[in-house]
Amino acid sequence: MGNYKFILSGGGTGGHIYPAIAIANELKDMYPDAEFLFVGAKDRMEMEKVPQAGYKIEGLWISGLQRKLTFKNMLFPIKLVSSLLKARGIVKKFKPDAVIGTGGFASGPLLRMAAGKDIPCVLQEQNSYAGVTNKLLANKVKKICVAYDGMDRFFPVDKIIKTGNPVRKDLVEMNVSKQEALEFFGLNAEKPVLLVLGGSLGARRVNVLIKEQLPLFKSLGIQVVWQCGKLYYDEYKNCQTDDVLVFDFLNKMDYAYAAADVIISRAGAGSVSELSIVGKPVIFIPSPNVAEDHQTKNALAYADKNAAILLREKELDLNFKTVFTDLLSSKEQQLKLSENIKKQAFPNATKNIALEVEKLLKK
Ligand SMILES: CC(=O)N[C@H]1[C@@H](OP(=O)(O)OP(=O)(O)OC[C@H]2O[C@@H](n3ccc(=O)[nH]c3=O)[C@H](O)[C@@H]2O)O[C@H](CO)[C@@H](O)[C@@H]1O
């Protein structure tokens, strides 16, 4: 058995980056001598998050195609050609044994070039609605690991394997106790903790809601751990008190999940998969601004099974207060939601994806 080399490519948002890191960690456990290289987009989140996770990354000069005719868009063909050339160089030099693409525009040129060189490629699609890059790559790759049923609408049926979404090992294993988590955040064990998650970039409407509801949370005697997002941090950092902790980004999600009694979250695919493993009562407020409204579909699938509460942005003004207060006062509802959301978990997703990659290795 040689020392395998793997390229992982994906990014733009945490939703594409963390699955790639989870798969790399799993492959590393299986092949401790393997070499890894990540390929992302210059200036995007992955350029910071991947090195923090201990992996090397190269950035391509690429961005998504916008619908409007802008200067950025006019650069797109040049960026694409430049990225394809750089991707070809990377593949030629690194000589990967397999390439894994987790979605986002940077993975397009890289997987296109790798597949062209007959290197086995695997895609991982997190959402119930396939991303444009993955759709374009589907015919070039060997396998496509998905988390939802009905993905044959987008991909060749013989390539699809339902594995669930990768979740970072620290979150699957969850070695942090509630007590440790409360101490980590300096929170009071006597008062309930609400965790607010706006997805990897933060969510404007969720932040507006939380600020509005701070008096309610105070009257209910609850503490809030509020991830508002890097873009919004300056606007909300002044809301910080002993009971309201405001973060741009939470680097220790295991502590955040362990501290929480109830959770309000966007319904990005990664968040949904993690929350299923965490198994706590969740109110999803899906982003209505993503392709095909896929976050609402993710959340609806759970709400239909009484595995979470779904509140659409447009009903927040009318219903949030009642729904939240009822949930907080009903241990029974909290327990039911926790039990039901756990049934949606795929704790072995990462392992099963890594095993699919393994089957394609030639040496
Ligand atoms: C606005 C947007 O385009 N959202 C998309 C993006 O979501 P987004 O990038 O928000 O990703 P997900 O909800 O899938 O996952 C968020 C990830 O970021 C991590 N995290 C989040 C906040 C934080 O403070 N710390 C932290 O570590 C979470 O633990 C999780 O692993 O990709 C998802 C997966 O393709 C899609 O379903 C979403 O619709």
Automatic annotation (TrEMBL):
<keyword id="KW-0131">Cell cycle</keyword>
<keyword id="KW-0328">Glycosyltransferase</keyword>
<dbReference type="Pfam" id="PF03033">
    <property type="entry name" value="Glyco_transf_28"/>
</dbReference>
<dbReference type="GO" id="GO:0005975">
    <property type="term" value="P:carbohydrate metabolic process"/>
</dbReference>
<dbReference type="InterPro" id="IPR004276">
    <property type="entry name" value="GlycoTrans_28_N"/>
</dbReference>
<dbReference type="InterPro" id="IPR007235">
    <property type="entry name" value="Glyco_trans_28_C"/>
</dbReference>
<feature type="binding site">
    <location>
        <position position="168"/>
    </location>
    <ligand>
        <name>UDP-N-acetyl-alpha-D-glucosamine</name>
    </ligand>
</feature>
<dbReference type="GO" id="GO:0071555">
    <property type="term" value="P:cell wall organization"/>
</dbReference>
<dbReference type="GO" id="GO:0051301">
    <property type="term" value="P:cell division"/>
</dbReference>
<comment type="pathway">
    <text>Cell wall biogenesis; peptidoglycan biosynthesis.</text>
</comment>
<feature type="binding site">
    <location>
        <position position="127"/>
    </location>
    <ligand>
        <name>UDP-N-acetyl-alpha-D-glucosamine</name>
    </ligand>
</feature>
<feature type="binding site">
    <location>
        <position position="200"/>
    </location>
    <ligand>
        <name>UDP-N-acetyl-alpha-D-glucosamine</name>
    </ligand>
</feature>
<keyword id="KW-1003">Cell membrane</keyword>
<dbReference type="GO" id="GO:0050511">
    <property type="term" value="F:undecaprenyldiphospho-muramoylpentapeptide beta-N-acetylglucosaminyltransferase activity"/>
</dbReference>
<dbReference type="InterPro" id="IPR006009">
    <property type="entry name" value="GlcNAc_MurG"/>
</dbReference>
<dbReference type="GO" id="GO:0008360">
    <property type="term" value="P:regulation of cell shape"/>
</dbReference>
<feature type="domain" description="Glycosyl transferase family 28 C-terminal">
    <location>
        <begin position="193"/>
        <end position="352"/>
    </location>
</feature>
<comment type="similarity">
    <text>Belongs to the glycosyltransferase 28 family. MurG subfamily.</text>
</comment>
<feature type="binding site">
    <location>
        <position position="295"/>
    </location>
    <ligand>
        <name>UDP-N-acetyl-alpha-D-glucosamine</name>
    </ligand>
</feature>
<dbReference type="Pfam" id="PF04101">
    <property type="entry name" value="Glyco_tran_28_C"/>
</dbReference>
<keyword id="KW-0961">Cell wall biogenesis/degradation</keyword>
<keyword id="KW-0808">Transferase</keyword>
<comment type="function">
    <text>Cell wall formation. Catalyzes the transfer of a GlcNAc subunit on undecaprenyl-pyrophosphoryl-MurNAc-pentapeptide (lipid intermediate I) to form undecaprenyl-pyrophosphoryl-MurNAc-(pentapeptide)GlcNAc (lipid intermediate II).</text>
</comment>
<feature type="binding site">
    <location>
        <begin position="13"/>
        <end position="15"/>
    </location>
    <ligand>
        <name>UDP-N-acetyl-alpha-D-glucosamine</name>
    </ligand>
</feature>
<protein>
    <recommendedName>
        <fullName>UDP-N-acetylglucosamine--N-acetylmuramyl-(pentapeptide) pyrophosphoryl-undecaprenol N-acetylglucosamine transferase</fullName>
        <ecNumber>2.4.1.227</ecNumber>
    </recommendedName>
</protein>
<keyword id="KW-0573">Peptidoglycan synthesis</keyword>
<keyword id="KW-0132">Cell division</keyword>
<keyword id="KW-0133">Cell shape</keyword>
<dbReference type="GO" id="GO:0009252">
    <property type="term" value="P:peptidoglycan biosynthetic process"/>
</dbReference>
<dbReference type="GO" id="GO:0051991">
    <property type="term" value="F:UDP-N-acetyl-D-glucosamine:N-acetylmuramoyl-L-alanyl-D-glutamyl-meso-2,6-diaminopimelyl-D-alanyl-D-alanine-diphosphoundecaprenol 4-beta-N-acetylglucosaminlytransferase activity"/>
</dbReference>
<dbReference type="GO" id="GO:0005886">
    <property type="term" value="C:plasma membrane"/>
</dbReference>
<keyword id="KW-0472">Membrane</keyword>
<feature type="domain" description="Glycosyltransferase family 28 N-terminal">
    <location>
        <begin position="6"/>
        <end position="145"/>
    </location>
</feature>
